[in-house]
Design a protein that fits this description.
Oligomer: homodimer
Number of helices of chain A: 16
Strand content of chain A: 15-25%
Largest interface: A-B, 46 and 47 residues
Distance between the termini of chain A: 31 Å
Largest sheet of chain A: 8 strands, parallel
Shape of chain A: globular
Number of strands of chain A: 16
Structural class of chain A: alpha/beta
């Protein structure tokens, strides 16, 4: 089977949906925790399920470098390798390769880059990255794209889009050839076009004509201001086919996610909850807590009394303060479990709000939630797994 | 209530027992995972329970430095602070203070030392450490002792013992005075005497006369050869009161534990399973695995097919190899959960073997278990939490 997407209810442009994959169904809008090397840092597959995750994201780029796709394939694919038995999506590596700067060289045939680990040379082609993801048996594979930096000229953005579209066509053809038109899992196309409205709308039309199983908005969270990012989402999401899932790559804060859901986005991934957790920046229903702050030294309250994560169920802000300041591993683990639970609970709230027709009120309430501390580390490179 | 110990069955000198504390009962022989700062590194209280732990050990010395006993007390004691709701034992800090070398100065009244964190000066007295542990509400407190190094002269060992005995007398009196003879939790005395048989036997008699709730064998795992350590256990354990629990501090390998159980020891603690896990040294029923070794790169088997830990239930040696080599946090977490489960399962095997009368066979089978790799990091400072 491939993937199947159903829209179960709508509220304005927002959609409540179900993405059915070979490894199970995902209620959308959904957040995909980021497991760069096959695991969310500090979290076992069992704990990820317990936190409420229904789909996990991993990175072709990182897995290709280490342990290598051959190893993953010999071990029975990415599900067997990681122990995560639910739906799995892999990013194609376009963003990571772009982040390498001088270590990579793009041509029309693909991208050649040096491993940031050992300096060895690798090459990704549109056909190759489809094949690598198929060999890992993922539920959703992403096409190879060229992710332009921000800011970028209109000409450069348009040129990058022409190349990405050509790659998308080749990826689609490779998929058909390899799988007799079917194949396990789905393949998603990616829209680029930087912050240029006509380019984004054109890109959405052109990639949709190729007939993918879903469509991603790429090229955001690359340093652009929030207003630009939100404009890109507001232009692009409605221009994508209504019957297919829409995935906003590498975004973002709860506020960004609520905004995108209001414009019809269904899938998200971001390292923000897990990376911020390791730095002691914790999301709660009453604001963001920088847990290392001295005012939490004696605070007996749970991080968030409405949260059911292992940290909130048993311990206090004071204990997290103590462990995170001391650099104790358990501090990173408990903080990560908390932030993931917060994000996954938040997605459930968004889904409920679509059903109830209260999405606007929920989005507006987020302003209150962040009235505590400021959100802390939030530059784009903190959001994407580079 | 204080603590209550019952011997339920014996096999030779080995005992099957039950230690009942204000926070629950512990089946002995038992292993106490080490939670230096209040948590076993990388492990939530819930996961510690799931691994099979019934009692956790923490360190007065470390908690006194950070976050400070005042903080722990204000937050409702060490159980409320850490979220561990089962039995809790704290070490008094004698061993840690001894490890400070030039940073500490012992006199007959107690020990003065510099914090290894900020250089501030602290003083532990026999009465003070009892009071600090009582304020944290622990189930079992340990007396302050002087832990001589190895090797040490007979004269120095005897002098250290005279001082430790005086401190034990003062601790016992402090306990009576503060609690009207009762008190919550129990207080254990500690036998020292280095590797001198007559000193150890004399120390066991003298400390027993003071009437503690249990007795520890201290001053081992300080660099002495295995044969010396085992001789100390074989001399000292049988010389302690049969009706009270016996605790061998900071030991050790499964082989050392089996040996001590055969000589009537009931309680153990050691950082070996957790610290070795973080270095990729993993215990299994067929030998010790150094998981970073290249031969595990493609090994699809669980670490130990007979283990029910989160790593063995879902993942492979190859995945642990990948994560531990990459320094991914999840590698440390899964490895720690595995080694703890191994130790706690092993204690259950020992208890069953006492019941069945098969302890000798079990101890002999351990030689086979370590036929794989050698046990890896196992110097004394790797075993004790300094």
């Amino acid at each position: 089977m491939t993937v199947l997407f159903e829209v179960l209810a709508t509220h304005g442009e927002a959609r409540l949906g179900r993405l059915t994959t070979p490894h199970g169904a995902v209620a959308t809008p959904a957040f995909m925790p980021v497991a760069t090397l096959g695991a969310v840092k500090g979290v076992s597959p069992q704990e990820l399920t317990a936190a409420g995750a229904s789909i996990m994201l991993s990175n072709l780029y990182h897995l290709a470098l280490r342990p290598g796709i051959d190893v993953v394939e010999r071990l029975g694919g990415l599900h067997a390798f990681t122990g995560w038995d639910g739906p799995l999506l892999t990013d194609s590596g376009g963003f990571q390769v772009w982040s390498l700067g001088a270590l990579r060289k793009v041509d029309d045939g693909g991208v050649t880059f040096r491993s940031h680990l050992d300096g060895s040379t690798l090459r990704f082609t549109p056909e190759g990255v489809v094949a690598l993801q198929e060999r890992m048996g993922v539920d959703v594979a992403m096409v190879l794209d060229e992710c332009p930096p921000w800011p970028v000229s209109r000409e450069a953005a348009a040129a990058a889009w022409r190349r990405t579209l050509g790659w998308a066509r080749r990826a689609r053809a490779a998929r058909r050839a390899q799988n007799g038109g079917g194949g396990v899992g789905g393949l998603f196309g990616i829209v680029q076009g930087s912050v240029f409205r006509d380019l984004r709308e054109q890109a959405a039309r052109e990639v949709a004509e190729l007939g993918f199983d879903g469509y991603a908005i790429g090229g955001v969270s690359v340093g652009e201001p929030m207003a630009e990012r939100r404009a890109v989402v507001a232009w692009t999401a409605p221009a994508l086919p209504a019957g297919k899932p829409r995935y906003l790559m590498g975004v973002g804060t709860p506020q960004d996610i609520a905004h995108a859901v209001q414009h019809g986005v269904d899938l998200f991934d971001c390292v923000l909850p897990s990376r911020n957790a390791r730095h002691g920046v914790l999301f709660t229903r009453t604001g963001v807590l920088k847990i290392k702050n001295a005012r939490f030294r004696d605070d007996p309250r749970p991080l968030d009394p409405a949260c059911g994560c292992p940290a909130c169920a048993r311990t206090s802000r004071a204990f997290l303060h103590h462990l995170v300041r001391a650099g104790d591993l358990t501090g990173a683990v408990l903080a990560t479990l908390h932030n993931l639970r917060y994000y996954l609970d938040f997605m459930a709230e968004l889904r409920q709000a679509i059903t109830l027709g209260t999405l606007t009120e929920l989005a507006e309430s987020l302003a209150t939630r962040s009235a505590g501390d400021d959100p802390g580390p939030n530059d784009p490179l903190e959001q994407r797994s580079t």
